[in-house]
Amino acid sequence: MDEERALYIVRAGEAGAIERVLRDYSDKHRATFKFESADEDKRKKLCEGIFKVLVKGVPTTCQVPCLEVLRILSRDKKILAPVTTEENMQILLRLAKLHESDDSLEKVSEFPVIVESLKCLCNIVFNSQVAQQLSLELNLAAKLCNLLRKCKDRKFINDIKCFDLRLLFVLSLLHTDIRSQLRYELQGLPLLTQILESAFSIKWTDEYESAIDHSGPPLSPQETDCAIEALKALFNVTVDSWKVHKESDSHQFRVMAAVLRHCLLIVGPTEDKTEELHSNAVNLLSNVPVSCLDVLICPLTHEETAQEAATLDELPGDKTAEKDTALKSSAMVYNGMNMEAIHVLLSFMEKRIDKGSSYREGLTPVLSLLTECSRAHRNIRKFLKDQVLPPLRDVTNRPEVGSTVRNKLVRLMTHVDLGVKQIAAEFLFVLCKERVDSLLKYTGYGNAAGLLAARGLLAGGRGDNWYSEDEDTDTEEYKNAKPNINLITGHLEEPMPNPIDEMTEEQKEYEAMKLVNMLDKLSRRADVKDLHQDGG
Predict the structure, then answer these.
(1) Burial environment of residue 498 by CB neighbours within 10 A (0 to 12, 13 to 18, 19 or more)
(2) Which of 59, 190, 371, 517 has its CA 20 to 30 A from that of 251?
(3) Beta strands 333-334 and 485-486: pairing type?
(4) Are 6 and 21 in contact (CB under 8 A)?
(5) What is the pTM of this model?
(6) How does pLDDT run across 391-414, given as a tens digit for each residue?
(7) Mean pLDDT over each residue of the chain, to the nearest integer
């Protein structure tokens, strides 16, 4: 009934009536994602009618509800045949300011039309293979990059950037050829990195260092959404970028890694949005060549070092909260390097462990990233070793029992998901410089057996990678307990009492004779078996 009424007005009515009926339809079906198959033909005809209205050049106030209804209807894959023609795609491109003749974005009144047109294109391209092919023929990726350049530094058009980026993500997700085009022909890596810089309002203090204002306001919802879409598009552009062949590539990836470091140190409008932002940053960091991840840490300046020491010295004894904050900040410094970003990654990993579900999708990317960082960068590995595997003091409990990060990771070493337990074990192994004896000290032989068997190291030894030769130092508590530690379980066990100590002399003599008789019976059986074999 709704489609019939809307179709009648669209075919016969004037702009004002069309606007009213389509706005009513949009309000009513805003949250509709499943449609009645009986009305399929009516919805197709309504789509065709809407395109005829858009061609007429109706006012902006009428264009917006037309596009809203078209966006809702394009959620249904079955009715897209009349929509996905070159003529109709060109209409949407023109309304979205993706046509070559559109040089500027000056008319604010047109912004809602641009946004709704981009939303329609996102749905249509995602749901229709015909539209995907037309996107390639119309060079849609290049048009989207051109629109991004127009609105790169303009904060008040975040919605346009957001849906431009979303459409770019959809295209690069569906077509590997577009990834290559974005990466090389369209210079997508620097362009999208600049979009992130703009969203984060980054101010550079050095080539790969940005100023971080921890007391500043969180990102706005619009900036956060825009950054998330840019991160997702960048992930597709860089998905095959493990090896760097040119110095210019290395520089671009280092700039991007520095932007991602900034991303990890800021927060979104809500805790959930912050986690989504950081999750996409982690995924993208996994695509960065490991040699370029050194920019995640940076040396402290002389001023920062002096300020850190002065802060602790100058705070009076009653300023407990302030001292706690200062101590927490100093805990993120290692060997004169600022480790804030690595600390955020470690906290993110622990939160994902605590969730207790979707480990493969949610946990393995950050674990893999921390493993590769630790393997390639000594300061990162040593900092993480201090945080995850501090010197052992209390070994009364099994390694998997407890609430520390070490306990949680050791529990994952026996997880039912093979991929999860492998990467958790690999991370701890790398923190131990791939030395079997060091790993067993922190995990116990039982928990580490799977990794050691896969590596052919059940008899001991070390992995294939080279690490510095600095030695681990054991605490006095561990040295005293070491003789009584069960190597299989990895924890302290009190020596079992000797049952003979509690026996009288008569009981000892009885047990000894019992043992002699058992040995004698075994010997006789063996002799009889030998005689039968000889006789046979």
Answers:
(1) exposed
(2) 371
(3) unpaired
(4) yes
(5) 0.85
(6) 988 888 899 999 999 999 999 999
(7) 86
